[in-house]
Amino acid sequence: MILTILQDSNEIIGEVISEEKTLSIYNLIMDGGLGGQIIIAILLVLLALALYIYFERFFAIKAASQTDSNFMNQIRDHVSHGKLDSAKVLCAQANSPAARLVEKGISRIGKPLADIHTAIENAGRLEIYKLEKNVSVLATIAGAAPMLGFLGTVVGMIVAIHEIANAGGQIDIKMLSDGLYTAMTTTVAGLIVGIIAYVQYNHLVVRTNKVVYEMEAKSVEFLDLLNEPI
Fold first, then answer.
1. Pfam families attached here (predicted)?
2. Would residue 2 count as lying in a domain?
3. CA dihedral defined by 41, 45, 50, 56, rounded to 10 degrees?
């Protein structure tokens, strides 16, 4: 008798396990309703945009940070010997933000140091603007993505409450599943996209600051060169 009961229990447990639904990202998205699917689609577009901006800026900033350690020594030799054209060619070959600032200063040699300093500062602002191109979009995505996820949470809860109101007092979990799926999946997706964009933004800011510091160092070194006695 006991053996029969145990066998029946094992059969029931086996049937329950076999009927257990597997959890997948695709099913979560598709079971979340139209509202959740729209928000997930928007978040995927934002994620793709964030990845594109990050890698495009990453390689651009990486290229801008690559300078020859002997660059300023060569500039010093050319300027001290009056070979300004050769110095400009060297700057053009370097093709970096710092080199373009030095080239701007070389083109102003012969004018007052204040004018040279102002020209370098103006050129520096333009170079910084180029380095920071579209980086602010990452900050926007980092802030907007979680908000879109929370919007999905609100939409999902509204759907769930609407189903409860139409249930006539008889609450069925299956009726609430669409709203709950929307609430949970959009929140998770929004946080994931926001975190990725936030990390990417801060990484680009750090790398940009390094290039800016290098530009400032080269500019100061060039101005010091002009102040040296001939």
1. MotA_ExbB
2. no
3. 150
